[in-house]
Amino acid sequence: MPHSPYCLTLIAVALSAAFTPQSSAQAPHSVSGIYPSLAYFNNEGECGTGAVVPWADRLWVITYAPHMPKGSSDKLYEITPDLLATVRPESVGGTPANRLIHRESQQLFIGPYAIDAQRAVRVMPPTQMFGRHTGTARHLTDPANKVYYATMEEGIYEVDVHTLAPTTLWADEQVKEGRHADLPGYHGKGFYMGQGRVIYANNGDHAKEALSDPTVPSGILAEWDGKADAWSIVRRNQFTEVTGPGGIYGSEHPDTDPVWSIGWDDKSLILQVLDHGQWHTYRLPKTSHCYDGAHGWNTEWPRIREIGDGPMLMTMHGMFWSFPKTFDATHSAGITPRSSYLKVVGDFCRWQDRIVLGCDDTAKSEFLNKSKAKGNIAGPGQSQSNLWFLDPAQLDSFGPQIGRGAVWLNESVKAGAISDAMLFSGFARRGVQLAHGNAEAVGFTFEVDRKGDGQWASLRTVSVPAKGALWVSFAPDETAAWVRVKTSADCDHATVFFGYNAEDKRGKDSAAIFAGLATTTSAKDVSCGLIRARGENKRTLSFAASQAADGKVKHTGYYELDAELKLKRVDDAKAEAYVAAKTAIPTNVLTTDAASVLYIDDKGKRWRLPKGDDAYDHAGPLGPERIDREVCTERDLFNAHGTLYELPANNAGGMAKARPIASHNLRLKDYCSYRGLLVLSGVNDDAKGEHIIRSDDGKAALWVGAVDDLWQLGKPRGHGGPWSATPVKAGVPSDPYLMTGYDKKCLHAQQTGAESTTITIEVDISGTGLWKTWQSFDVADGKGADVAFPEGFAAYWVRALADKDCTATVTLSYE
After folding, report:
1. Lower Cβ count inside 10 Å, N or C end of the chain?
2. CA distance 626 to 423
3. Which of 679, 647, 813 is nearest to 742 (CA)?
4. Checking DSSP bridges between strand 421-423 and strand 482-487, what pairing results, if any?
5. How many helices (H) and strands (E) does the chain have?
6. Spatial distance between the Cα atoms of 622 and 814, rounded to a whole number of angstroms
């Protein structure tokens, strides 16, 4: 029997007092929109946010563990308007990420819980409805009395909203008995009802190759009419969100309202819209590649959600997108990039006057995200995540808008065959890389849908030389909602890869919030040391502190940071020894030579990165500094020679798909995530400010903020290249040198030792090793050549080769 509402209230009050360190008279402390007291923990390998919903004058939050269909230590949280949190005693855990407000019964269905308007909670335990709940949808034939539940393993249940009694329609694939959907792919995500069908999406695959290769077939979008003996496959690609204009309430007009589903393949994002019974396909560029793993684990739950009046908000592949509520096949204009972000977001909503994002911050297991750049570093001691509160205007203020994506990628196409439509609006700078393998020139004709009404018109035709490649920039007055392309001949190895970006208006100076951190020119004493989120349910941060002064680093003591951001000295030799040993910083990860920074990955591949301040050529006063560490679940922060990079896990592309976040002149001893915050070690002794946390004895300090504060460090920049007075052999390509994510790009080339040499500059169009010639030029002995790349030019990597043996220099300047 469920508890009575009166009993639940008494239990809630008692648990609230135990859970939250602040009283109702004292507002919780926050930094960069993150309240450390609201962080949630579990005992499993990951603690992500499954759903965040305002309901009955409260904010309701559920967390999830990685694979727990039978329940877990995860909780249902009830948060008051003054940000006091209660753990609901009905909590059963699991891996839930579903939510639906049922109008007729006035209940919020969130995870396995049904919450009425008086905040009474009923639970559907996993013994009654097995599986990892990923979606709840309105019913096809009896929407007033029933809802559908879907699990990540294709279980579909019909639930009576009054009694909560479930009926199995399709058995979860982990259950032997019953009818199974047997869909390709796995790792279910989105679920919605509309236009006479229920629609289900998954974004992973069981194939062994999916654990390492992000290009293998994966995922599914499928539908069922409630009657058939089998599901129908809409598209065999990775999909996450399935929703419509009705959002969390479901469609008010299910017969006519459109249904949207967002997903991706190795080429780009894919947006499917169901309009009057027909599916239509659109493509959008990707911002981040951290989500690309074919196993499906790297995504969490990208969403399209309501955030108040006006357009909806879409989170997908590291971009905040504005998404029009009226989007359908004849009203498709208006999707707009807002800004890029680093956090891993599971769900979000508008609550009071802010946007609340539920994140996946710190996973104990770190899954497959291991590399030699990290060394043998131990993962966090306990999984934990938090909410992130933003003013709505902040959605436009984080990282610059960048988009990369193809409609064709090194594939065969027929003459006149029309590609999918690619987004053509919303970015200030737009261009495209064209390539093919034909022995004769091929014409690529671009067509545009100017108003998003499905009416297409010719834009222009570009001729690409035989077996050639060409970068084409679009003029500011070439405007439209969507663009598509066709070729004049059957074409082998055709590539049409769009590169979009905005002018990066950041300067070189860091924001004031970083003023207390040690820099390459710091003459002050510096508090530094190794940090790690502690386990054993301590819920603190371990800090083995040191003091750097006069070129020497001396041990200071062991400290712990708590939920109130109090940094206190602690007498715990065992914990201190553990963090010192298990978070040791590996050495010899990077090599710096005259040309650039060289990183050799776990497979022996060589990658070159730009150099920053010359001070980074030598060891700094803090001793070894952290180069690579996971700071958001399954994505790393990579720190090399004055630039911080977003580094995808190896199963999502690894270094080949890295991109710069910001450049700096900091000396960062260490960094990690804790209670949703990014914590940095390396603070000047006289530093002050809301981001500086100083110990109770004044001898240790840390910097805390949000990982997306890093965009404020400064515009990515650097210098270097693949060769610097380097002996080269004819026809042998240089190492690849990073190009993506930088704004203004200029190249200098020179050579000695050959009377005249042709130096060819090649670019990797897609980050997949698809190298194409950009430009070749003759360089006389002792002479040089300088060239600027076109504004907005986009490619992932650049390399050089010469047609004669010589000593060559090819360097690039990024501003």
Report:
1. N
2. 39
3. 813
4. antiparallel
5. 2, 61
6. 28
Closest CA to 702 of 543, 539, 551: 543
Residues contacting 208, CB < 8 A, separation 6+: none
DSSP summary character for residue 589: S
Give the dihedral sign, CA 103/105/110/116.
positive
Cα gap 483→462, rounded to integer Å: 14
Distances in Å between the Cα of 123 and the Cα atoms of 93, 137, 723 are 11, 18, 64
**Strand ranges across the sheet with 784-788:** 718-728, 806-814, 745-752, 784-788
Q: Are 806 and 734 in contact (CB under 8 A)?
A: no
Kindly report the number of other CB atoms within 10 A of residue 107's CB atom. 23
**Strand duo 526-533 + 683-684: pairing:** antiparallel
Has residue 15 got a pLDDT over 60?
no
Residue 788 burial (10 A CB sphere; 0-12, 13-18, 19+)? exposed
Q: How would residue 2 be classed by pLDDT, with cut points 50, 70 and 90?
A: very low
Structure-block tokens of residue 683: 């603070």
Q: DSSP 3-state assignment of 7?
A: helix
The closest alpha carbon to 37, from 102, 84, 78, belongs to 84
pLDDT tens digit string along 265-276? 999 999 999 999
711 three-class SS? helix
- What's the mean pLDDT when you consider all of the chain? 95
Task: Label residue 369 by pLDDT band (50, 70, 90).
Answer: confident
pLDDT in tens, 634-657: 999 999 999 999 999 999 999 999
Q: Return the residue matching tokens 């096949």.
A: 329
**Is the CB of residue 389 less than 8 Å from the CB of residue 355?**
yes
Contacts of 260 (CB under 8 A, 6+ apart): 241, 242, 243, 244, 271, 272, 273, 274, 304, 323, 327
Helix (H) or strand (E) holding 16: helix 5-19
d(CA 126, CA 67): 13
Report the alpha-carbon distance of residue 29 to residue 189 in Å, rounded.
34
How many whole angstroms from its chain centre is CA 149? Answer: 27
